[in-house]
Specification:
The chain is of the alpha+beta class. It contains seven helices and 19 strands. The strands form four sheets. Strands 12, 13, 14, 15, 16, 17, 18 and 19 form an eight-stranded antiparallel β-sheet that branches. It has a four-stranded antiparallel β-sheet with strand order 2-3-4-9, with no helix packed on it. A hairpin with a 5-residue loop joins strand 14 and strand 15.
C-alpha cells in the first residue's frame, strides 16, 4: 500500500519491536530500517534510515549487518554509510525521536511539519508512565483514525457517551490542530469504568441525566498522531493515538500516559474497547462514497483541511554521482 507521506511525525515502532541491530519496516510503502546502537550509558539509540541499497536495490533491513556507521549489504557485501556522505554510497537518515517506548520519525529535514511535537510531547509526558495499550492493523484510509478525535457526533453514536458540550476547533500557531470541549457523564468516567466489563455496560449502568463535565482536548500534531487529554486537573491522563500506513494496512497503536495516581488500568481497558468499536465501523466503511457534510461536521471539515494543507514528505535523497563502494 503506497501512500503519499507527509512531513510530520509518524510513530514507526515501539521499543519492544526493535530488539535487533537492524529492523526492517515500511511507512506508506517507503522501504526503511531502524538501526539500534547503544550510548555510553548503555541506553538504546535508534536511527531511522532508508533501506534500499544504492548499488543494486537490495533491502538492507533484511540480512544487512550493522558495522559501526555502515550496513554491510546482504547482496554484494558493499558497505553502505548510514547517513549522507559526499563520496561514499549512503542511505539517508531521518529525524528520529524516542519518547519512552515510542519511536517516531519524520521525513523532512526542515522544521516545516514538526508542529512543535518534538518539544510539546516530551513536556506532556515528562515524569509520567507511558503504556502501550493497543496494537491493531486495519485495512482502511489512514486519516480516518485521527479524524475520530474531531468527529464529535461519533462519540455518542459509536461510544455511547451520554452528552457532549459545544466543541471548538482551533488552528495553533505551531501548525497543530486542536479541538476542545466537554464530555458530560454521570461521574468521573475513568473511575466509573472500573466497574464495567465493556463500555456499553458502563453506559447502561449509569443511564440518566449526565451532570458531570469532563474536559476534552485533542491535539493533532500531524495527520497520523493525536494526543487527547480527558479529565480534570492540571495534568489529566493522556490517550495518544497513532496510525502508521504499512504494506499490511494501517497499524494503529494507542498509548496511555499518566501519573502514579491515575487509573491507567481502567483507561487502557477503555481504550481497547473504544478502538474495537471504531474498528467495527472502519472495517466496513466505503472511503469512496460521496460525503454530504454539514454544520455538525465542523470538526471533521477542519481536520480534513488540516490534512490537505499539511506539507508533503521530502523525496529520498539520490546517491552521490560517481560513488563507489
Amino acid at each position: 500500500m503506497n501512500q503519499t507521506l507527509h512531513a510530520g511525525w509518524y510513530l514507526v515502532a515501539t521499543e519492544d519491536e526493535l530488539t535487533a541491530d537492524i529492523t526492517p519496516l515500511d511507512v506508506g510503502g517507503r522501504r526503511l530500517m531502524v538501526t539500534r546502537t547503544a550510548s555510553d550509558d548503555g541506553d538504546a539509540i535508534f536511527t531511522v534510515a532508508d533501506a534500499t541499497c544504492p548499488h543494486r536495490g537490495a533491502h538492507l533491513g533484511y540480512g544487512g549487518v550493522l558495522d559501526r556507521d555502515c550496513v554491510v549489504c546482504p547482496f554484494h557485501g558493499r558497505r553502505i554509510v548510514v547517513g549522507e556522505h559526499p563520496t561514499r554510497p549512503f542511505v539517508s537518515t531521518h529525524p528520529t525521536l524516542q519518547v519512552g517506548p515510542l519511536v517516531f520519525a519524520r521525513f523532512a529535514k526542515d522544521p516545516v511539519g514538526d508542529c512543535d511535537f518534538s518539544v510539546d510531547f516530551a513536556g506532556l509526558v515528562a515524569d509520567r508512565e507511558i503504556r502501550v495499550a493497543v496494537h491493531a492493523v486495519v485495512d482502511m484510509p489512514v486519516e480516518f483514525v485521527v479524524e475520530n478525535a474531531f468527529d464529535s457526533d461519533h462519540f455518542s453514536a459509536v461510544h455511547q457517551v451520554p452528552g457532549l458540550g459545544p466543541m471548538t476547533t482551533t488552528a495553533l500557531p505551531s501548525g497543530a490542530l486542536r479541538i476542545s470541549g466537554d464530555f458530560r457523564t454521570m461521574a468521573d468516567p475513568w473511575y466509573d469504568m472500573r466497574y464495567a466489563a465493556a463500555l456499553n455496560d458502563f453506559v447502561s449502568d449509569y443511564r440518566g441525566t449526565p451532570t458531570r463535565s469532563s474536559g476534552f482536548e485533542a491535539t493533532a500534531y500531524s495527520p497520523t498522531i493525536v494526543s487527547t487529554a480527558f479529565g480534570e486537573g492540571p495534568r489529566p491522563p493522556l490517550i495518544v493515538t497513532m496510525a502508521t500506513p504499512t504494506s499490511e494496512g494501517v497499524h494503529i497503536r494507542v498509548a496511555i500516559v499518566g501519573g502514579a495516581h491515575d487509573p491507567l488500568d481502567s483507561i487502557a481497558v477503555g481504550a481497547k474497547i473504544a478502538i474495537a468499536q471504531d474498528i467495527a465501523v472502519w472495517k466496513h466503511i466505503d472511503p469512496d462514497a460521496p460525503w454530504r457534510l454539514d454544520d455538525l461536521d465542523a470538526g471533521v471539515i477542519a481536520f480534513r483541511r488540516f490534512v490537505a494543507d499539511f506539507p508533503p514528505a521530502a523525496s529520498p535523497a539520490p546517491a552521490p554521482s560517481g560513488a563507489s563502494a
